[in-house]
Amino acid sequence: MVPLREGGSLPGVVEAEDLGTYAVKFRGAGQGVRVLVAEIICAELARGLGFRTPDLKIIDIDPQLGAREPDEEIQDLLKASEGHNLAVDFLPGALGFEPLAMTPDPGLASRLLWFDALIHNVDRSWRNPNLLVWHGDIWLIDHGAALWFHHNWRTADPQRPFDGGDHVLAPFATELPEADAELSGRITRELLEKATAEVPDEWLAGESGFGSPAAVREAYVEHLLARAHGPRGWLPDPTAPRRTGGPGVPFWKESR
Description:
Layout: E1 2-3, E2 12-15, E3 21-25, H1 34-48, E4 56-61, H2 72-80, E5 83-89, E6 95-96, H3 106-118, E7 131-134, E8 137-140, H4 176-183, H5 189-197, H6 213-229, E9 244-246, E10 249-250
Antiparallel strand pairs: 1-2, 2-3, 3-5, 4-5, 6-7, 7-8, 9-10
Helix pairs in contact: 1-5, 3-4, 5-6
């Protein structure tokens, strides 16, 4: 295992028994299993809507993996992560997205802003795009900060507005109404049930206020269905002023 010292979850690059190479996100990290739940649901939903996102697998971690690890923090993480963890297919040679290097198509930008608004994804900003460019295509990664309401289900308001002012593709999302018309009808119960079914039961068991993993899955499905097919007040306003990287400087031109 090679630790990736970035982000708050301390993922690691792991070669698995199937000879695949994965960026593994550990259940024992301080952020807990809910971020792994969000990763799975949002990635599977993105895939169902036609976005490119790395394949996911559930991987078993043997705590003995860290027996010879000299870093005590990593030892503790591996011990706390025994059992099922989330493996994200590693994209060798992928580069971080830069708007000036690859100006996105307005249709793609609008669809992605719509998708992030749907899933309450606050972590696709110009500071941290969570987009990779691989073989000339844009790939979506890191959805652990989405569906943030599940940290306190009482805050789960399907009509909560989404602030797109920080979104990395907001300046290019000039076709948001068209994206809404295209994608909202594709958010079906079948699609959402398929996405939530990928989450291991053990990551949903014991959720406060729910009697079973099935009940938690149904809550995600109902929330996202209500958001996709209810009032459109949650959609970001494409005509609203964008946030800037400095006084009067659009963020995508900052320090260029």
